[in-house]
Write a structure and sequence with these properties.
Layout: E1 7-11, H1 16-27, E2 31-36, H2 39-51, E3 55-60, H3 66-80, E4 85-88, H4 104-130, E5 133-138, H5 151-171, E6 176-183, H6 189-197, H7 199-207, H8 217-228, E7 239-242
Parallel strand pairs: 1-2, 1-4, 2-3, 4-5, 5-6, 6-7
The protein binds nicotinamide-adenine-dinucleotide.
Nicotinamide-adenine-dinucleotide is lined by residues 11-12, 14-18, 36-38, 41, 62-64, 89-92, 110, 114, 138, 140, 183, 185-186, 188-191.
């Protein structure tokens, strides 16, 4: 088991990519802290992991609230002794066009500040004193290129790439690696909602995926676990697209051309 005796925090672990990551980490022996704003989702994830023989614990709260995150990290260290891994997965689109956009603060608070608050808390409370740790950010293709109609998300997800590089060089001396995945379209709640709200846009996007399907949350979880594991011991500060080849395909072309 690759993560035996390790303690892992997964933000947004109550559904989608976060839930798949929490489950896989538990299967690989980690004690998993499911940090989510939705109590019911966090508790269901914990029950689900326990039913499969894993160890998990819920940490409920808004990652945008720095004090709450610090309290959460201290509580985890008090209960479980340390935080070895942090997956900064919680995030959400806050759609809108740039001419009228008023939601930039909320988008940055959750998608960027939330990831920073957890990184800071995990590093200060455990990883720096222990001279060891791995952090994986969950950005998006919207962190590598612009997507239309989601200005706040594009700005925020690009921000995570900068944070990954900055924390990687700041904390390398403490044995902390910081990396990032940039998922392409992945079958989760957010995408099911987008399929319903923007069917034409989504069908066109799926038609441009060279591998020919959208990702499953488990596809993302496996990439996250790789970057969190010792197999990636010499990798820090990078962003890995997990996108079925979308970044490799010129965006002006479709698969058939
Ligand atoms: N699904 C995709 O196609 C896709 C593509 C690229 C990137 N992503 C990114 O992957 C991550 C996970 O997305 P998903 O598709 O699994 O979404 P999801 O909505 O299924 O899960 C997100 C989880 O985060 C939690 N959350 C939201 N705001 C929070 C907050 N303020 N504090 C604590 N928890 C909060 C939600 O309750 C939910 O459980 C997000 O960062 C998203 O931007 C997803």
């Amino acid at each position: 088991m690759k993560f035996a005796n390790q303690v892992a925090v997964v933000t947004g672990g109550g559904s989608g990519i976060g839930l798949a990551t929490a489950r896989l980490l538990a299967t690989e022996g980690a004690t998993v802290i499911v940090a989510d704003i939705r109590r019911e989702a966090a508790e269901m994830a914990v029950a689900d992991i326990a039913a499969s023989g894993g160890r998990a614990h819920a940490c409920v709260g808004d990652i945008a609230d720095r004090d709450l995150v610090q309290e959460g990290a201290r509580d985890i260290v008090a209960r479980f002794g340390k935080i070895d891994l942090l997956v900064n997965n919680a995030g959400l689109p806050v759609p809108g066009s740039p001419e009228t956009y008023k939601e930039l603060g909320r988008s940055l608070d959750v998608n960027v500040c939330g990831a920073f608050h957890w990184s800071q808390a995990a590093a200060v409370e455990s990883m720096i004193p222990n001279r060891s740790g791995a952090i994986v950010m969950v950005s998006s293709l919207a962190g590598l290129v612009a997507l239309p109609g989601d200005i706040g998300y594009v700005i925020a997800k690009h921000g995570l790439l900068g944070m990954t590089k900055a924390l990687a060089i700041e904390w390398a001396e403490y044995g902390i690696r910081v990396n990032c995945v940039a998922p392409g379209t992945t079958s989760s709640l957010m995408v099911q909602e987008a399929m319903r709200d923007y069917p034409t846009f989504m069908a066109e996007r799926i038609g441009r995926i060279p591998i020919g399907r959208i990702a499953e949350p488990e596809d993302q979880a496996k990439a996250i676990l790789f970057l969190a594991s010792d197999d990636a011991a010499y990798i820090t500060g990078v962003t890995l697209p997990v996108d079925g080849g979308q970044m490799a395909l010129h965006s002006g072309f479709t698969k058939g051309r």
